[in-house]
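EI: anyone free to look at a 210-residue chain?
SC: sure, send it
EI:
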Amino acid sequence: MNSLISKVAHIRHTGTLDHALTIFRSMEFMSKTLFGGFFVTSERHYRSMPTHGIGKYKHLLPKDAPKKKKDKHQMKAIKAITSTDYGTLSVLVFGYDMILVERYAQYIHNLCNRFNVKVDESYALPTKTTEIMIMQDQSTKMFVDSVLKTHERVVQIRQLNATFCPIFLEVLLKNQPEGVQLSIKEHTEADYQARFKARPELEGLMAKMS
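SC: here you go
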């Protein structure tokens, strides 16, 4: 009786394996399609293979040019005065209110552009600080009462026509804000050097090396 049961179980197990093998072969056959008389498989073999640069695009972009080092700021040539034009002039605007000084300097720059007066540069000078000291009555000690900051802007122009100069100055004076000072003078090399902070230690070392 036991031998009969074992034979029946073996037949069932063999039938299950045959059925599973048939299903696997049918799935393998379905994974291939007939196209133009050839079998084309849809299996993904590349999953276990290297990509070989798939998706990389940087080699397609043009190579960037090497960045150039910024040249040291050099002073522009000062134009001499002629019989019809003024040379290089510096229009100085300074005052205690930074907003008024900045707006008036922008107004002068725009006015020069409107009347075809060439503007070489427009820049700010370092802020100057002034301390006001007060001495108390019947005392020798002094204390700081207030601190004033002077803001200065420079509009450097050239080729200002001698006939247009009086009209230009009259327009500037009529639109000058209260509390803002205006000064116009010939541009010199000292004015250019005043833009930079003095470094006496570095200058002393350079003098020793030379």
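EI: Strands lie at 32-35, 38-41, 89-95, 118-135, 142-158, 180-186.
SC: 👍
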